Amino acid sequence: MYSKIVVQYREAPTDKSDWWELYEPFEETLSDGTTIKISAGYVTDFASVPWILWSFFPPIGKYNRAALVHDYLYDLQLREKELGEKQARYFADQQFLYFANKVDPKGFVRHYIMYQIVRWFGRSAWRASK
Fold first, then answer.
1. What average pLDDT does the chain have?
2. Which is a Pfam family this sequence falls into (predicted)?
3. Which has the closest alpha carbon to 115: 90, 83, 79, 86?
């Protein structure tokens, strides 16, 4: 059973995206068995997707869990000190794919495309979190 994601819309600092604030703590177990705890108050945009692609890759919806975990791992830069930037970012991106497949096992082709997009464009977001 999944833990519930409780968010409320929050005015974005710019007009470029929508932001959502976590109103209750959220806990999730990653693919390697590590548990992360995201505190209430954490802010996410879920998925940063250009509006032209929303019909195929919606920024909000059934992939919220995958996007929330991914955003948090990027913000935290989990394991960068131990693994280095490349491997730590790879791990975070793998978690996006893992949770997308968990939520919708039949959508693995779509998830893989989404994962590749995250891989291609995630480097700048990872470095912006520093």
1. 83
2. DUF1353
3. 90
